[in-house]
Specification:
Elements lengths: L17 H14 L7 H27 L1 H14 L4 H53 L7 H21 L2 H20 L1 H48 L1 H7 L2 H50 L6 H43 L17 E5 L2 E3 L13 E3 L3 E4 L3 E6 L5 H8 L5 E4 L2 E3 L3 E4 L10 H6 L6 H10 L3 H6 L17 H14 L4 E5 L7 H15 L4 E5 L11 E6 L2 E6 L1 H6 L4 H16 L7 H15 L28 H9 L6 H26 L8 H46 L3 H6 L2 H43 L3 H46 L1 H6 L3 H50 L7 H12 L1 H27 L26 E9 L6 E10 L4 E5 L6 H8 L7 E6 L2 E2 L5 H6 L1 E4 L8 E2 H5 L7 H10 L3 H5 L8 E2 L8 H15 L3 E5 L7 H14 L4 E5 L4 H4 L3 E6 L2 E6 L1 H6 L4 H13 L3
Parallel strand pairs: 5-10, 5-11, 8-9, 9-10, 15-22, 15-23, 18-21, 21-22
Antiparallel strand pairs: 1-4, 1-7, 2-3, 2-6, 11-12, 13-14, 13-16, 16-17, 19-20, 23-24
Length: 1227
C-alpha cells in the first residue's frame, strides 16, 4: 500500500461542503441582519434537523446503558438460588437481554458520535468560510491578523467540538433521574435521597474547581496569544535579526512570554488533577454515604442490591464529572461565539461600485474635499492622514504624478482613492471604471509567477508576452529553471525586491483596468530597469489608460499631464510640471534643487552647461544600448519551498521514549503506574468485601462492614490523588523541555531554513502542536495506560470466577488487535493529513488578509472565496473520513466485547451451583458491564495517542535543524575594540546558495581600505547582495576567505562578527513595540543618545508629534510609519550602534531625493572614520565615494575611484552613469 494521498480520500457529502453549509448559515445569520444578529441562533437554524436526530440516538443510548445495573440484581439472585431446568432458561433469557441492551447501546452510541462529528464538520466549514468572507470585506482598522488567524485556529474548532457536548445539557438530569429510579427499586427512598444529595455535593464541590480551571485556561490562552504574536513577528524578520545579531535578545523575550504561559499552565494542570481526583473518588464517596444510611436505617442489604447500586454509582460517575466540563465547554464556546459574532458584526466598508461610465463623460476620477484618517479612535494623533481642501476632476487618459518628501502622505492619498482609508468627513472620491492597484510593499502570492501575473484572468498569449516584455520580466524568467512556472516562496522570499515589484506591476497591467494606481513602482529597481518600466509600461502599454503614480524619482515627473505635490497630508501644489517649475518658491522647486544637487555630484560642476553636454553623449549611447540587455541572473535560484515533510508509517518508538524520558529522565513514570495498580486493586477489594459481607450466611456487624469498606476506599482514593499530582508535574516539565528544544533550535537555524520554510509551518508547531503537548498528550498516554490496567484487572477477575473465560478473552483480544492494526495504517495517515491540510487554510488566510487591499481593488474576492472554500472542503473531507474510520473500528470491537460478555454470562449460568461463589460471580458481571465502555476507551486512546504523538514528532523534527556556526567561539573571540581600521580583504571568494546550485560569486579578490567609502554597483543579479551576505556569513563561502583587519571572519563566532558590523538592510523592518525598543532592543543606550540620533536622522519631529515620545507605539510591521520613515529608523539604529564598518544595502530606494541627500549627508558626517560599503541602485549615492566596485555576473569588472572610471567613456561605470543621467534629464 502506497502513501495515502488526498486524492484517495472521497469528497465530503454535499450537505457538508463549505459552500452549502456557509450559504445556509449566512442565510439564517443574514435574516437577522441588524445589530442583534445572533450567531448561536443562526447556527441552530442551519443544523437543527441533524441535531434532533442526533438527540434521539443520545436518548436511546442513555436508556440502554441503564439496563445493565437494573438487571444485575435479578442475575445475582438467580445465581444464589437453587434452580431446576426451567430456571436455566430464565438465566439464558437474562443473559440474552443483557446482550441485546448492550448491542443497542453500542449502535446508538456510534451513530450519536458520528452524527455529532458530521454536524461539527459542517459548522466548522460554515464558520471558517464566513470569517474569511468577512476578513476580505473589513478594512484594516479592524482586527489584527493574529486575532483572525486565531479565530480560525482555535475558536472555530472549539465551536465545532461543542456539537459533541450539546446534548449533555438535557442528558445529565435524565441520567440522574434514571439512576434514582434504579436505586429506589433496590434500596428504598431514604438511601436514594442520600445518594442524590451526596451526588449533588460532589457536583457542587467540583464546580468552583471547574470555574477556576476555566479562568486559568483563558489566562493560558491570553499568554499563548501574545507569545504566538511575538513568535510570528520574530520569524518574519529573522533575516534582519540575524544581521543585527539580535536574535538571542528576541529569544529571551519569547522565553519570558512562555514562562508566564507556563506559570498559568502549571496552575491549570494542578487544578485539573484535583478535578481528576474528585472524579475517581466520587463513586466511592457516594457509595460509602449511601450504604452508611442503609445500615443506620437497618435497610436489608443483599449481594444483588449492593452490586446493582455499585454499578449505578459507576454510571453516575460520568455525568457528575461531565457537569463542570460541560459548564466550562459552554463558557469557552460562548467566548468563542462572541469573538466570532463581534467580528462578523463589524461594519463592512461600503464597496465602491465601479460606476458605468457613459461615453460622454471624460472624467475618470472625481476628488471631492474631505478628510481621511487611518484610525478613528486614536486620541494621540491629532491630524487626519489626508486632508483634501479643493475638489478636482481627473480626466480619462491622464497621467498624474504624485510627489512629496517622506511621510508627506503619498501612499495615503492613493489609498483614499481606492477607498481603503476610512473617510471622516467630505463627499469622498468617485472612481469611474475598474481599477488596478500596485502597493508600495509588494504583495505576492505563493503560486507560480504566471498565476501571480494572470491573477485569475484567462491566458491571452499576446497580451501576456507584451506585459512580460513591458515589465522587464523576460530576462528573469529565462534564468529560472521552470520559467514562469517557478513557484514563488512565502511572501516572495526567493525573489529580489525588484522582481517582486515588477511581478505585481505586470499583474496590474495584465488586468487591463481603466484606472491604474501605482504606489512608487520604480523604487525597488535599478536605474536602467526603471527607465524601461517607465517608457514601456507607463508610456506604451498604459497609454490608453488613466494612471496615477506616486514617485520619489523627480525625473519621472516631466511626462505627467498633472503633478500633485504633497506635504503633511495636503496637496500643496498641483499643475503641469512646467507651471510648477516656473514657481521658484514652490515645494516642488525646493525638491528639485535637492535633486540637482545630487545630480551635480555626477556631473562635475565645472561645466555649467552640464545639461547641454548630455545630448552629445546620447548619440553614442544609442549604439551601446543593446549591450545592456544582458540576462539578469537572480542571485537565488528560487528553490521550491519544500513540501511539508510528514513522516509516514508508525510514529517511531524513539518519539515515545524521548517524550517519556524528557522529564526527570522518566523516573516518575513507574511510580504513576504503581499508583494506578494499587488503586485498581483496592477498589476491587472494597467492592468485593461489601458484596461478600452482605451474603446471608456471613454474619458481619454493620459497623465492621462499613468501617472496612471506608478504609479500603480511602486507600484507593489516596493513590488516585498521588497519581494525578505526579502526572501534572511530569506534564509541565515535559512540555517545557520540548518547547525549549524546538525554539532554541529554530533560532539557531540557518537563514536558508527560514527562506524555505513558510513561517506558518513553524507557527503551527509552536501553537497547535505545543498546546497538544501542554495539556493533552500526557493525559492521553496516561489514560491509555490506566485503561489497559483496568481492562486487564477485569479479565483477571472474571477468570477467577470461571477459568474458561480466559481463552475466550484471549481470542477476542487477538481479533481486536488485528482490527486495530488494519485500521491504524489508514487512520494514522489521515490524522497526519488533518494537520497538513489545516496549514494551507491558515496560509491562504494570512496571505489574503495581507493583500486584502489588492484583492478588493481588482474585484477578485469571488475567486479567493472559492479557493478558500475548496481548501476548507479538503480539510473537512479528511476530518469527516477520519471520524468515520474511528466509528467503523469501535463498532466492530464493541460487538466483539459484547459477545465476550454474553459468553461469560452463559458460562456462569451453566456452571453447577457448588462451583461458584455468587458474590464473586456477581462482582465479575458488574465489572463486565463496564467492559465495552473500557474497551472503547482503550481503542479510542490507542488511536488518539498515536495521532496526538504526531505533534511530538513534528516538534522533534524541528529540534534537529542544521544550525549556523556557533555564536561565540571561546578561544577565538576578537579583541573588544576590533575592528580598529575597518579594512576588509576578499581573497578568491566563491559563494553558492547550495551544493547543487551554480556559483554566484566567482573568485572575487579585492581590498576595501579602512575608513574609505566603497560603492558596489552592477546590474540586478550581479551578486551585490550576495557579497554582503558573505560578509555577514549569512552564507558561508564555498572557497576563499574574508579578512577584516587581518582576522579571518570564519574563525570567530557569528555574534562576535555580526555585532561589530552595522547594516541598513534592504527591507526596512520595524517591530511591534515602542520607538525605543525599535532603536535599541538591547537597552544599551540612554534616552539622550537616542534623541541625538533621531535629530541626526530628521526623525525627531515625527516622534515628537506623539505625546508619548520615545514610548510611542509602533504597530505590527511598523504599519503606522511610512516606508521612508522606516528606512530612517533603520539608519538611526546603525548610527546608535557606532560601528567601524557600515553596510548600506540599496537602502535609499524608497526615499525621495531630498531625504536621500539628508541620509547621505548624515552618513558622510557621522561615519567619517568608518568603512562604508554601499550597494547602490542610484548612481549619485556612490559618485562621491572613494572607490567603486563594479560587479557583473559574480566577477569583478572594475575597481577604482569613480573619477578615474568616469574619465574612460568605455568603462562599465561610465555607461551606468550616462544611463542614469539620461533618465534623469528625460530626453
Amino acid at each position: 500500500m502506497g502513501k495515502l494521498e488526498l486524492s484517495h480520500v472521497p469528497s465530503v457529502p454535499a450537505s457538508e461542503t463549505a459552500e452549502y453549509a456557509s450559504s445556509l448559515l449566512e442565510d439564517s445569520f443574514g435574516k437577522e441582519k441588524n445589530e442583534t444578529s445572533n450567531l448561536p441562533k443562526a447556527i441552530a437554524n442551519a443544523v437543527w434537523k441533524s441535531l434532533a436526530i442526533n438527540g434521539v440516538f443520545a436518548g436511546a443510548n442513555t436508556i440502554a446503558s441503564y439496563m445493565g445495573p437494573l438487571l444485575i440484581t435479578y442475575f445475582v439472585n438467580f445465581l444464589s438460588e437453587n434452580h431446576d431446568d426451567s430456571g436455566y432458561l430464565h438465566g439464558l433469557v437474562l443473559a440474552f437481554i443483557f446482550f441485546f441492551s448492550k448491542t443497542v447501546e453500542s449502535l446508538t452510541q456510534r451513530h450519536w458520535y458520528f452524527g455529532a462529528q458530521r454536524i461539527g464538520v459542517r459548522v466548522r466549514a460554515a464558520l471558517s468560510a464566513l470569517v474569511y468572507k468577512k476578513s476580505l470585506s473589513v478594512k484594516f482598522a479592524g482586527s489584527s491578523k493574529g486575532k483572525i488567524i486565531n479565530m480560525i485556529n482555535v475558536d472555530v474548532e472549539r465551536i465545532g467540538d461543542f456539537c459533541w457536548n450539546i446534548h449533555g445539557v438535557w442528558l445529565l438530569p435524565f441520567q440522574v433521574f434514571l439512576a434514582l429510579v434504579i436505586l429506589y427499586r433496590n434500596l428504598g427512598a431514604a438511601p436514594s435521597i442520600a445518594a442524590l444529595s451526596s451526588t449533588i455535593l460532589v457536583m457542587v464541590s467540583n464546580t468552583p474547581l471547574a470555574s477556576k480551571q476555566e479562568r486559568l485556561h483563558s489566562r493560558i490562552m491570553e499568554a499563548k496569544d501574545s507569545r504566538i504574536k511575538a513568535t510570528s513577528e520574530t520569524l518574519k524578520s529573522m533575516r534582519v535579526l540575524k544581521l543585527y545579531s539580535w536574535e538571542q535578545t528576541f529569544l529571551k523575550k519569547l522565553l519570558q512570554l512562555r514562562e508566564t504561559e507556563r506559570i498559568w499552565l502549571r496552575r491549570y494542570l494542578y487544578t485539573s488533577s484535583a478535578i481528576a481526583f474528585l472524579f475517581w473518588a466520587s463513586p466511592t464517596l457516594v457509595s460509602a454515604i449511601t450504604f452508611g444510611v442503609c445500615i443506620i436505617l437497618k435497610t436489608p442489604l443483599t449481594t444483588g442490591t449492593v452490586l446493582s447500586a455499585l454499578a449505578t454509582f459507576r454510571i453516575l460517575q460520568e455525568p457528575i464529572y461531565n457537569l463542570p466540563e460541560l459548564i466550562s465547554m459552554i463558557a469557552q464556546t460562548k467566548v468563542s461565539i462572541d469573538r466570532i459574532q463581534d467580528f462578523l458584526r463589524e461594519k463592512d466598508q461600503k464597496k465602491q461600485i465601479p460606476r458605468q461610465t457613459s461615453a460622454a463623460s471624460d472624467i475618470a476620477i472625481e476628488i471631492n474635499s474631505g478628510e481621511y484618517a487611518w484610525e478613528k479612535n486614536d486620541q494621540n494623533s491629532t491630524k487626519p492622514a489626508i486632508k483634501i481642501t479643493k475638489n478636482m476632476k481627473i480626466m480619462k487618459l491622464c497621467k498624474v504624478a504624485v510627489c512629496g518628501s517622506v511621510g508627506s502622505g503619498k501612499s495615503s492619498l492613493l489609498c483614499s482613492i481606492i477607498g481603503e482609508i476610512p473617510r471622516i468627513s467630505g463627499a469622498g472620491i468617485k472612481v469611474h471604471g475598474t481599477k488596478a492597484y500596485v502597493p508600495q510593499s509588494a504583495w505576492i502570492q505563493t503560486r507560480t509567477v504566471r498565476d501571480n501575473v494572470l491573477f485569475g484572468k484567462d491566458m491571452n498569449k499576446g497580451l501576456y508576452a507584451e506585459v512580460l516584455e513591458g515589465c522587464a520580466l523576460n530576462p528573469d524568467i529565462e534564468q529560472w529553471s521552470d520559467g514562469d512556472l517557478t513557484v514563488v516562496g512565502e511572501r516572495g522570499v526567493n525573489l529580489s525586491g525588484g522582481q517582486k515589484q515588477r511581478i505585481q506591476l505586470a499583474r496590474a497591467v495584465y488586468s487591463n483596468s481603466d484606472v491604474y494606481i501605482l504606489d512608487d513602482p520604480f523604487s525597488a529597481v535599478d536605474a536602467h530597469t526603471a527607465t524601461h518600466l517607465f517608457k514601456k509600461c507607463l508610456m506604451q502599454l498604459l497609454s490608453k489608460k488613466t494612471v496615477i503614480y506616486a514617485t520619489h524619482q523627480l525625473e519621472f515627473l516631466e511626462a505627467a499631464d498633472l503633478v500633485l505635490v504633497m506635504k503633511d497630508g495636503m496637496i500643496v501644489q498641483s499643475g503641469t510640471y512646467k507651471d510648477l517649475i516656473a514657481d521658484p518658491t514652490g515645494e516642488l522647486v525646493g525638491q528639485m534643487v535637492a535633486h540637482r544637487r545630487s545630480l551635480n555630484q555626477v556631473n562635475p560642476p565645472q561645466e555649467d552647461n552640464s545639461l547641454t553636454r548630455v545630448p552629445s553623449q546620447l548619440n553614442q549611447i544609442e549604439v551601446t544600448e543593446e549591450n545592456f540587455e544582458e540576462p539578469i541572473s537572480t542571485d537565488r535560484f528560487p528553490e521550491r519551498t519544500q513540501e511539508e515533510v510528514s513522516e509516514t508509517g508508525r510514529v517511531k518508538w524513539s518519539v515515545y521514549s524521548t517524550f517519556i524520558t524528557s522529564a526527570y529522565k522518566g523516573a516518575l513514570v513507574p511510580i504513576i503506574l504503581l499508583c494506578q495498580v494499587l488503586f485498581q486493586g483496592l477498589q476491587m477489594g472494597s467492592n468485593y468485601w461489601i458484596a461478600w459481607a452482605t451474603e446471608e450466611n456471613h454474619k458481619v456487624t454493620g459497623e465492621k462492614l462499613i468501617g472496612i469498606f471506608i478504609l479500603l476506599s480511602c486507600g484507593s482514593s489516596i493513590f488516585i490523588l498521588g497519581r494525578a499530582v505526579f502526572l501534572a508535574t511530569i506534564a509541565v516539565e515535559t512540555a517545557q523541555r520540548l518547547f525549549l528544544g524546538m525554539i532554541s533550535s529554530v533560532f539557531r537555524a540557518n537563514i536558508s531554513f527560514f527562506d524555505a520554510t513558510p513561517s506558518s509551518r513553524i507557527l503551527s508547531r509552536s501553537s497547535t502542536d505545543q498546546s497538544t503537548v501542554d495539556t493533552d498528550i500526557p493525559y492521553r498516554l496516561a489514560g491509555l495506560a490506566f485503561a489497559l490496567i483496568q481492562l486487564l484487572s477485569i479479565i483477571i477477575l472474571m477468570s477467577q470466577v470461571a477459568w474458561q473465560v480466559f481463552p475466550i478473552f484471549l481470542v477476542i483480544l487477538g481479533i481486536s488487535i488485528w482490527y486495530q492494526a488494519y485500521y491504524i495504517t489508514t487512520a494514522r495517515e489521515l490524522a497526519r493529513m488533518v494537520g497538513i491540510r489545516k496549514a494551507p487554510i491558515l496560509h491562504h488566510f494570512s496571505e489574503s488578509i495581507a493583500g486584502a487591499a489588492t484583492i478588493r481593488c481588482f474585484n477578485q474576492e469571488e475567486r479567493f472565496l472559492t479557493r478558500n472554500l475548496s481548501l476548507i472542503d479538503d480539510y473537512s473531507r479528511i476530518v469527516f473520513h477520519n471520524s468515520g474510520t474511528t466509528e467503523w473500528l469501535c463498532m466492530r470491537i464493541n460487538f466483539l466485547f459484547n459477545l465476550g460478555f454474553f459468553l461469560v454470562l452463559i458460562i456462569l449460568v451453566n456452571l453447577p451451583k457448588s462451583a461458584i461463589n455468587p458474590s464473586l460471580a456477581g462482582l465479575a458481571a458488574t465489572y463486565g458491564l463496564n467492559l465495552n465502555v473500557l474497551q472503547a476507551w482503550v481503542v479510542w486512546n490507542l488511536c488518539n495517542v498515536e495521532n496526538k504523538m504526531i505533534s511530538v514528532e513534528r516538534i522533534l523534527q524541528f529540534t534537529k535543524i542544521p544550525s549556523e556556526a556557533p555564536l561565540v567561539i571561546e578561544d577565538y573571540g576578537p579583541k573588544p575594540e576590533w575592528p580598529v581600521d575597518g579594512r576588509v580583504e576578499l581573497i578568491g571568494l566563491h559563494v553558492q546558495y547550495g551544493p547543487s546550485l551554480p556559483m554566484v560569486l566567482k573568485g572575487i579578490t579585492c581590498t576595501f581600505p579602512g575608513g574609505k567609502k566603497i560603492g558596489v554597483v552592477g546590474r540586478t543579479g550581479s551578486g551585490k547582495s550576495t557579497l554582503i551576505q558573505a560578509l555577514f556569513r549569512v552564507i558561508e563561502p564555498s572557497g576563499g576567505q574574508i579578512l577584516i583587519d587581518g582576522l579571518d571572519i570564519s574563525r570567530i563566532g557569528l555574534h562576535d562578527l555580526r555585532s561589530r558590523l552595522g547594516i541598513i538592510p534592504q527591507d526596512p523592518t520595524l517591530f511591534q513595540g515602542t520607538v525605543r525598543t525599535n532603536l535599541d532592543p538591547l537597552e544599551d543606550h540612554s534616552d539622550q543618545e537616542i534623541w541625538e540620533v533621531l535629530n541626526k536622522c530628521r526623525l525627531a519631529d515625527t516622534v515628537k508629534q506623539d505625546k508619548r515620545l520615545l514610548d510611542a507605539p509602533v504597530a505590527e510591521d511598523g504599519e503606522n510609519w511610512s516606508v521612508g520613515q522606516r528606512q530612517l529608523v533603520c539608519l538611526a539604529r546603525v548610527l546608535l550602534k557606532k560601528r567601524r564598518i557600515l553596510v548600506l544595502d540599496e537602502a535609499t530606494a524608497s526615499i525621495d531625493t531630498a531625504t536621500d541627500n539628508i541620509i547621505q549627508g548624515t552618513i558622510r558626517e557621522e561615519t567619517s572614520r568608518c568603512t562604508v560599503i554601499t550597494v547602490a541602485h542610484r548612481i549619485p549615492t556612490v559618485i562621491d565615494n572613494d572607490l567603486v566596485l563594479v560587479l557583473d555576473d559574480g566577477k569583478v569588472v572594475e575597481y577604482d575611484s569613480p573619477v578615474k572610471l568616469l574619465e574612460d567613456n568605455s568603462s562599465s561605470f561610465s555607461k551606468l552613469v550616462v544611463e542614469f543621467l539620461r533618465r534623469s534629464v528625460q530626453e
